Each structure stands twice: as structure tokens, then as C-alpha cells.
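This follows on from our talk about sequence and fold. I would like you to pick a protein and set down its sequence and fold. Go ahead and set the record down below:
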Amino acid sequence: MSFGVFVLWALLAVLLVMAVQDADTLDRALERALKQFALLVPRMVCAIVASGFLAHLIPAEAISTFLGPESGIVGVFVGTLTGLIVPAGPVIVFSIAAVFAQADASVAALIAFLTSWSLFTVHRVFMYELPLLGPSFLRLRIVSVAAMPLIAGLIALIIGSIVEITPTGRP
């Protein structure tokens, strides 16, 4: 059993002990968990189906050419730019990343893609940051983290040249 699974089981045990001590809290927690489950599962099913369609729409050769292991620094730049333009939430983005990984995208390009998307999610910037925090804050935040996707991808590229790492974590 891996350490992560052990931690999850330990956390579950602690939560069960806490739930047994307060039945009212347990009822509210179960109700909330069912609501979240009902909200999230349809989205995940749609995202998985959409990523399946995406896998057929984008030729694997194109992904391998622009994001593959031989693409090097160009793959990191393409991954960064791709992450900038994807206006979707995590369910869709990680499905896209899985499609890229299955089509032989390099780990460095995937890291650049996910880092870029995480820092510059287009819909979050326009819906929340700009109206709530203002353009000067947004400008400062973007300038202060602009190089991070490239740096993360380049670090992954360097480490990947020393140690072979696959997107699934298995050699």
C-alpha cells in the first residue's frame, strides 16, 4: 500500500470517529457530499466524453510533433501558449492534458501547459480578477508570474534529460 493510500485511510478513520460523535454533523456532511457528487459527476462524464472527442479531433501526430519529447524547448513554448488560450475548468483541462499525454506529449510540455493554465485562466481573469481587483493588480500579478510556465517547463526538461519520467510516473 502506498503512503498516499495510507494517509487517505487514516483521514477517513479520523472523519468517521468525528462523525460518530456528532450525528447531526454527519447528516449535514452526507447531504452536502451527495449534493456535490450529483453536481460533479455529470460534469466529469461530459468532460471525459469531450476529451474522447478531442482525442479524435486533434491528430496525435500534431500533438507529438509540437509537444512531443523531440520538440524540446519549442514544446515548452507551445505548451505554455496552449495553456494560455484554454478557457475551461479543471475537469476539461486535465482531460485535455490526459489526451496530450496519451498522444506522446513530453512531461515538460505538459507541465508548461498546466502551469500556464493555472496561472492565466482566461475566464477567471476576466470574470473575477479584473472586475474585483482592478487592472493595476492584474498587471502586477501577470508581470510577476509571466515567466513561471516557461521556467517550470524548462526545469522539467532539464530533469527529464537526466531522469526519464513519464506522465503516469512509471518508466
In short: The chain has a mean pLDDT of 85. The chain has two domains: 1-57, 59-171. The chain has nine helices and no strands.
